[in-house]
Amino acid sequence: MRIDVAASLTMSSPAPATALLEIAVARPAAETLTVLTGGRPADVEEFEADGARVHRLTLAEGETTVTYTASAEDGGPPRRVTAAEWAVALRPSRYCPSDQLEGFATTEFDRRRPAAELVGAVADWVHRRLAYTAGSSRPVDTAVDTLLTGQGVCRDYAHLTVTLLRALDVPARLVAVYAPGLAPMDFHAVVEAAVDGTWCVVDPTRLAPTGSLVRICSGRDAADTAFLTLLGGRARFEAMTVTATTAGALPAPNLAPFALP
């Protein structure tokens, strides 16, 4: 199945600044990236950081527009869990303080269950426990804040799921994706957990079928996977549009852990 994605971002800056983008598909069949800054084409540097394709550019004074399009094919081999990934995905991180919720997670879940069952049970629990509420969370909120307020958006659902899994000794990480069928359309955050040596994805929001997700990047939490990071100066994010469509019908929802290429 072919999946087509696109993203358009607009930024403004009163003086030169630096921007880091993580919007490129991990394994594109084809793609284009166009950047205009201060009315002129901009030079863009691509590099890899922890498996993510990062684009760095310098913003000129004035407005900058970024346009990205890509196509991808679903399928491909599942991603194996390396020893380094396993270790990183078990540790507490900025938005996923799993050490603070170990006692809570042990009380709520039976850590003796097989990993696949435990991953599904935690994702189901988070889905039932939280209310999806746009604008309800702050950029600084951790999984503990989300647990206490009982609401959030996709990154909050992902952070709480990752945190509980790590507290149960299941390696887990956040994955940024394009998600055909998502409404309202946006960049989306889901969870990957280590199941029998393979990274398997679950979406605790249940807002998009996992079978058509397109990977952008993965990381410890949202600090590693932000679609835009503005550095230096007083650059400001202005607007964004995201689209993701399939050539055929969307696949049926899959609530079990699913290997994402």
List the SSEs and their pairings:
Elements: E1 2-13, E2 17-21, E3 30-37, E4 40-41, E5 44-49, E6 52-59, E7 62-73, H1 83-88, H2 102-108, H3 115-129, E8 131-132, H4 143-149, E9 151-152, H5 154-167, E10 172-178, E11 188-195, E12 198-202, E13 214-219, H6 222-225, E14 228-231, E15 236-246, E16 258-259
Parallel strand pairs: 8-9
Antiparallel strand pairs: 1-7, 1-15, 2-6, 2-14, 3-4, 3-7, 5-6, 10-11, 10-13, 11-12, 12-16
Helix pairs in contact: 2-5, 3-5, 4-5
What does this structure look like?
By secondary structure, this protein is α+β, with helices and mostly antiparallel strands. It folds into two domains: 2-74 and 227-246, Immunoglobulin-like (Sandwich), CATH 2.60.40; 83-223, C8orf32 fold, CATH 3.10.620. The protein has helices at 83-88, 102-108, 115-129, 143-149, 154-167, 222-225; strands at 2-13, 17-21, 30-37, 40-41, 44-49, 52-59, 62-73, 131-132, 151-152, 172-178, 188-195, 198-202, 214-219, 228-231, 236-246, 258-259. The strands form four sheets. The protein has a five-stranded antiparallel β-sheet, with no helix packed on it. Strands 13-10-11-12-16 form a five-stranded antiparallel β-sheet. A four-stranded antiparallel β-sheet has the order 5-6-2-14, with no helix packed on it. Helix 2 packs across helix 5 (154-167) and helix 4 packs across helix 5 (154-167). It is globular, with a radius of gyration of 18 Å. The two termini are 13 Å apart. The mean pLDDT is 93.
